[in-house]
Amino acid sequence: MTGAQWRKSTKSGNNGGSCVEVADNLPGIVLVRDTKDRDGGTLTFGPAAWRSFVNLAKEIGTVG
Predict the structure, then answer these.
(1) How far from 18 is each of 10, 28, 36, 46, CA to CA, in Å?
(2) Which residues are within 8 A (CB) of 49 and not within 5 positions of it... i.e. 6 or more apart?
(3) In what order do the strands lie in the sheet with 7-8?
(4) What is the dihedral of CA 9, 20, 42, 62, to 10 degrees?
């Protein structure tokens, strides 16, 4: 995962609670991790699967 540029979700709270970071700058993969446990594991998605997830989340109103 060298070179991943992590960014915090815009829907994450500012209180240090439920935060998710995404790295989508690597070719062919999108990485997702929990900011409270950055070394605890990373989910890996293909770009099309990630776009589908984000689009569905927008449709149901959970992502701005």
Answers:
(1) 12, 27, 8, 23
(2) 30
(3) 7-8, 20-23, 30-34, 43-45
(4) -80
Query: Rounded to whole angstroms, how far apart are CA atoms 31 and 35?
Result: 12
Asked if 10 and 21 touch (Cβ cutoff 8 Å), the reply is no
pLDDT digits (tens, 9 = 90+) for 1-23: 789 999 987 766 666 566 889 99
The pTM of the full predicted model, rounded to 2 decimals, is 0.78
**Rounded to an integer, what distance in angstroms lies between the CA atom of residue 27 and that of residue 12?**
25
Structural tokens at position 34: 């929990």
How far, in Å, CA of 55 to CA of 57, rounded? 5
